[in-house]
Amino acid sequence: MMDMTEAAGFALAVAMVWCSIRELHWSWPLAIASSALYFFVFRDSQLYGEASLQVVFAILSLWGWRQWLRPPKTAKVNAEAPEKSQTLDITRLSPRGRWLTLAASLLLWPLVSLFLKQFTDTDVPWWDGGVTALSLVGQYLLGRKVLENWGLWMLVNTLSIGLFAYKALWLTVLLYAIFAVMSVMGWRRWQRQIH
Predict the structure, then answer these.
(1) Which of 110, 148, 173, 193 has CA atoms 20 to 30 A from the CA of 17?
(2) Residue 58, Cα to own-chain centre: how many angstroms?
(3) CA of 9: how far to CAs of 40, 59, 127, 143, 152, in Å?
(4) DSSP letters of the chain?
């Protein structure tokens, strides 16, 4: 029998990524709702990094929603379309930004993994910790509308497919396979939007 919490989280998560690809700010409240449901799915599967990540995702979604609705005051005003100036533009990582992204990922992975190994009964601390660390970095990049978030999500989604298959969360395996395809779609669409 299908777990209804997982099924509802699945539906909300697909809608959330679809909205993100289309740059619709409604992706953020959908992310909050999906994260709340997936917290319980992952907790019950002893994926504590993923469960904790859902709480962080909900908090970061509030921040991301604000970022997308009210960009920083340093945003440039578009003289031809001032209404477009009120939104956050898609950008690319600078070379320094790429190094910082890599450094943050490599620092967070062992920190999260060691915490999970020490303080939980998870049987996959390094796998769960790696996915969790990369997801945190990806969520930050998504909130700032950085194109490379989609590449990072592709990696996260691929690793997650294996992790959730190991835990027999088959509907979530399907979700992350869909996410992998949507990551490619997001990359392509956002790449066309860059000025």
Answers:
(1) 110
(2) 11
(3) 10, 17, 22, 20, 22
(4) ---HHHHHHHHHHHHHHHHHHTT-TTHHHHHHHHHHHHHHHHHHTT-HHHHHHHHHHHHHHHHHHHHHHS--TTSPP-SS-TTGGGSPPPB---HHHHHHHHHHHHHHHHHHHHHHHHHS--S-HHHHHHHHHHHHHHHHHHHTTBTTHHHHHHHHHHHHHHHHHHTT-HHHHHHHHHHHHHHHHHHHHHHHH--
- For residue range 114-141, list pLDDT tens digits in order: 999 999 999 999 999 999 999 999 999 9
pTM for the complete prediction? 0.84
What is the reported pLDDT for 1? 45
Report the distance separating Cα 58 and Cα 82, nearest Å.
Answer: 31
Q: What is the spatial distance between Cα 98 and Cα 102, in angstroms, rounded to a whole number?
A: 6
